[in-house]
Structure formats: structure tokens, C-alpha cells
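Incident review: delayed structure delivery

Summary: a single-chain prediction request sat in the queue longer than the usual turnaround. Root cause was a stuck worker, restarted by the on-call engineer. No data loss occurred. The affected request and its eventual output are reproduced below so the record is complete for anyone auditing the incident later.

Affected input:
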Amino acid sequence: MLIILYLATISFCALYAPQPLLAVFSEQFNVAPEYTSLLITVTLIPLGIAPILYGYILESIPSKTLLKYSFTLLAITETGFIFINDFWVLLAIRSFQGLLFPAIFTALMTYISTTASKSHIKKQVTYYIAATILGGFLGRFIAGFTATYASWHWAFAILSIGLMIGVLLLFYLEQDIKLHLLHPTWRAISQTFQQPIFFRIYLIIFLTFFCFASLLNVLPFRLMGLNQQTSEIQIAFAYSGYLIGIISALNSVRVSEWLGESRVIIIGLIVYFTSLLIFLIPNEYSFFANMFMFCGGMFLVHGVLSSHLNHLAQSNKGLVNGLYIACYYAGGALGSYVPNYLYRFAGWEIYLLFLLSLVGIALGLAYNLLMLERTLKNHKINSF
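Output delivered after worker restart:
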């Protein structure tokens, strides 16, 4: 399990490492901010379609073998950021890496689900989620730290070494398990989306992660706009609020048992909405502090939505969860790119109002979800 947690952490480091450097890339390669944001977008797009398409591609490959090849290729391509100084070539490399990440994450989750005992699987999945959040922060921090005190190229050298260590650790995994993945039909997908409760949950997480991915991509440019002297390490520290996600995610189930899942979703979205309002304050210090509130709200919503979905799904859990992941990353892929144009041409305030409107829609859906579940519950009681 320690090897799996290391692999999850280092792979998420590689996924998000370029994010605090987007402003640096924009200046160094002389490209518009929305184009540098594509370095994140192109890796999220495959994650959005993976639950639907990857089951057909990967089922015949043992997970250990898949991880070896994927990590080796990821480590090799990571060195491209050390030696290549053409932005569009680097974007092509990231596009290829985007095809590797779904394979890695699918294999890791499959390995956990097939090797863990039933009594420990929830705990180990929770540890896995915490490792992915930690990796998301560490990747950003390593990139910001090395860019400030050495060169941003060193960040990718460190990550490449870390990934190769992961390849070596894979030889110590004792079992080699074949993936048993989902083969959804379009009819089954359509029927799942037509379920009123599921549809609202999917739309809520799509809108929530759309805004989250968008703001995290715009963050380096906003901080540079507030203070031209902002360094890469300071931008990296702004992502420290991400760590609150570990606490928020680990305690989301406990809080929902106390207050009720639908209520906690609403509370989390209210916290999320309020944090976006606070971002209107043109002060870099309030920006840093508010990131903890912003990330806490996001991961509280995410943690409760995913557990609530599993609680509601009585059958076809693989499809129900797969579509949740697809909506999550589809929102992230679109959010990491499309709103950047609004920020560039309309300014920070209009951009934030746009995000606030989307979270407002999510809040309305969450309240509607609560009312719908009450109606269904009362109907069952009256029928009984």
C-alpha cells in the first residue's frame, strides 16, 4: 500500500507541476495566458473520457505491466521540459502524458480494490485520495520552489527521477492483476443521466470543479497582477490551501453522518460561494488566506457528493461512479481553459461574477436535490 501511495503522490505531482509556472511560460515562450493554460487542460481531457472509453482499451493488460510502461514513458517525457524550449512541442508532450494519466490512475485504483480486504478498502481508498491531494500540492510547490531558487527546469528533472523511482518500486509489487473495467453502452449512460438525482449530482460536480480548475489556472496571473514582484515560490505557497482538502475530504463522511449529506453539500457550496466573493478584495494576503476556505469548500462538496452517490446507487455502481469521474474531469478540462479568455479580456471582477453565477446554479441544484430526496422519502413512507 505504501508503494501505491507513493505512485499516486508522484503521478499527481507530475500532473499539476506546470500550474504555478503558467505565467512564467507565458512570458518566456511569448504566448498568451490561455495557451499556457492548455498545459493543464490537455491532461484533464482524457481523464474526462477515460471512464467511458478506456475500459475497452485496457482490460487485457495486467495492472502491474500497465503501470511499468506508463511510469517509464511518463518519466522519459518529463525530461522534455528540461531540454526542449519550444512551447508547442512541450504542449504535444503534455498531450501524450494526458493519455498516460488515466491509465495510471485506473490501474492504481484497480490494484487497491482487488488486493484490499473488504474491511480495509474504504480506509485505503481514503488514503489514496489523500495521497492525490498531497501530490497535487507537492508538484506545485516543487515547481515554484525550484523556479525561484534555481530554474524551473530542475522541477521536471526532480519529478523525472521520482517517477523512475516509482518504476523501480513496481518490481516489489507481488501480484499482477488484470483490469476488469467498465464497458458501458450509450443506452446505459443515457438511462443513468435520466435519473433525476444522479443528473443533479453530476451537474453539481461539473460546475464545482469547472470553477475550481479555472481559478487555480488563473491564480498565477492574478497574483502577478496584484504584485509584479510576486515570485514563483509565493505562487506555489498560494496553493497551500489545497492541503486543507486532505482534512476536508477525510472528514466529509463523518460530517455528513451528523448533518445529512444533502445539507452538507449545500453548506460546502455556500462556503465555496463566499470564498469567491472574498476573492473580489484586491489584496494578495487575503487571497492567500482565502485559498484555504476555497479549497475546503470544494473538497467538502466533492467528498460528500462521491460518498452520497455510492450510497444512492443500488446497481451499476461502476457506471454511476465512472460517469461521476467523467463529469468531474470534463468540468476541470473546460474550466481550465475557456474562462481564461473572460479573465484576459473582461478583467478579474467580471470573471469572478461568472464563476459566482455557476456556483449559484450549483447551489440551486443542491437545494433542489434536497427537496427531491425529501419528496421521494415521503412518497415511500406514504406508500408503506
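Verification: Confidence is low (pLDDT under 50) at residues 379-384.
Action items: add queue-age alerting; document worker restart procedure.
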